[in-house]
Amino acid sequence: MTIDIPARLAQLGMTLPSAPTPRGAYQSVVIHRDIAYVSGHVSRTAGGIIAGPVDRGTPSSVLRHAAQTCVLRALSALVAALPVSSSVERVLFLRGFINAAPSFVNHGAVMDEASAVLHEVFGDNGRHARSALGVSSLPGCGLLEIELTVALTHERHPHPAETRRQP
């Protein structure tokens, strides 16, 4: 099943931000064979960083907003890097780094918010393996940073000899 990511997001009331530009000596997305590795994207909006650290008192609405922001930034980078004949077949892995206070222990709940966005966009193909890691800081003091690994599918274009009519 091929999903038009921007169209699906529009159905869900979300839009892709502009594809982020790397802020260092790396690429936003590397595609090797049929796997796309999406570099880490921090919870940065047009208005600034959704900052951490997260603690027991952080409202769930802030966690949801940070997670959605990270996923949309990662998908934006992915869409910008996809070859024309490629699409996402399924999400394989989601890794999250949570800027957390030392006493915070509910890292999985933060990542559940990011997982939920991927499930909404890709349905069953958005179900993935995952890691949730607590860290003492992130770039710009961001609350969350995520990385994605996705499998790609390519539209098969028939060889010209295959399109000739047989007598």
TrEMBL record:
InterPro entries per UniProt: Endoribo_LPSP/chorism_mut-like, RutC-like_sf, YjgF/YER057c/UK114
| CDD domains noted in UniProt | YjgF_YER057c_UK114_like_1
- What Pfam families is this protein classified in? Ribonuc_L-PSP
Q: By its UniProt entry, which PANTHER family does this protein fall under?
A: ENDORIBONUCLEASE L-PSP_CHORISMATE MUTASE-LIKE DOMAIN-CONTAINING PROTEIN (PTHR43760:SF1), ENDORIBONUCLEASE-RELATED (PTHR43760)
State the protein's name: Enamine deaminase RidA (YjgF/YER057c/UK114 family)
Species for this entry: Paraburkholderia bryophila
